[in-house]
Amino acid sequence: MIKTKDIFQNEKLRCGGFYELCIQVCPSLDMEPIKRYTDFIKSLENVDGPFNKNFEVTDIKIENFEHEWILNLDNYSIPFKTFHIHETESIETGFNWFDVCFYTSTIEEIFGAEYQTWNENPKYPTELTEFLRKTMFDLNGIYKFQMAMIDFEISGQYYLADLNTNFNNWTNSNFFVNEKDAHLISERNKTVVEIIADNGTQ
Questions:
Q1: How far apart are CA 144 and CA 177, in angstroms?
Q2: pTM of this prediction?
Q3: Tell me: the pLDDT tens digits for 157-168?
Q4: What is the rounded distance in angstroms from the CA atom of residue 33 to the CA atom of residue 143?
Q5: How far is the C-alpha of 199 from the C-alpha of 193, rounded, in Å?
Q6: What is the β-pairing status of strands 95-103 and 147-152?
Q7: How far apart are CA 42 and CA 93, in angstroms?
Q8: Number of helices and strands (H, E) in the chain?
């Protein structure tokens, strides 16, 4: 655990952007889904935290912009963050976002320099991709979100409404939308979106 603490507190490993799961959850006026999402992260058996900057366990404060955690895998322990982006311009038309983020510099330190999630031919640690995907499906089971995305630095780049336009998906982004909202996706964009069935499967 000492090594994990050193990684957690190493500012040089807190850079390079994020490999992340980003979820457009619900309108800004409704905070309850964000609380439920955060409580779920804390409940995971392979997650410790949240931690403060001194690596001391602290309480969840839903009004906070971010919480910091440790994901424990079979052979690795890696810090990650959850962010709550609360759009307030305007509060009536904005959205709540929930992001689960791994620093790319931390990924390369723990998994190896070849795991570069930010270049034109990214390589992602399978364990992290599986964690992000499973977490996404689990969170959707708690509260059905509007849209989710997994990629490098994808947060805030697209909204569900963009999937009905000729937007430029210039990266390797993965998009996920519930079946009930599939009609909001243009035919052109259905090739880049995974539809989640009403029973929670693809």
A1: 9
A2: 0.92
A3: 899 999 998 876
A4: 6
A5: 17
A6: unpaired
A7: 29
A8: 4, 8
Phi-psi category of 89—alpha, beta or left, where left has phi over 0 and alpha has psi -120 to 50? beta
Which amino acid, residue 80?
F
Q: Which two tokens stand for residue 116?
A: 């570069």
What pLDDT score was predicted for residue 121?
Answer: 80
Q: Residue 151: in which H helix or E strand, if any? A: strand 147-152
Estimate to the nearest angstrom the gap between the alpha carbon of 13 and the chain centroid.
19
Taking a C-beta distance cutoff of 8 angstroms, is the pair 150, 116 a contact?
Answer: no
Q: Which residue has the tokens 């895998």?
A: 73
Say which residues have a Cβ less than 8 Å from residue 64's Cβ, sequence separation at least 6.
84
Q: How many CB atoms lie within 10 A of CB 149?
A: 22
Both tokens assigned to 46: 């392979």
Determine the Cα–Cα distance for residues 152 and 135; give it in Å rounded to an integer.
17
Helices in the chain by DSSP H: which ranges?
A: 2-9, 32-43, 104-111, 126-142
- How would you label 120-138 residue by residue, b for 16+ Cβ within 10 Å and e otherwise? eeeebbeebeebbbebbee
On the 0-12 / 13-18 / 19+ scale of CB atoms within 10 A, 170 is exposed
What letter represents residue 52's amino acid?
Answer: N
Residues 6+ apart with CB under 8 A from 87: 28, 94, 95, 96, 97
| Predicted confidence (pLDDT) per residue in 16-28, tens digit | 889 999 999 999 9
Q: In this structure, are strands 193-196 and 174-178 parallel, antiparallel, or unpaired?
A: parallel
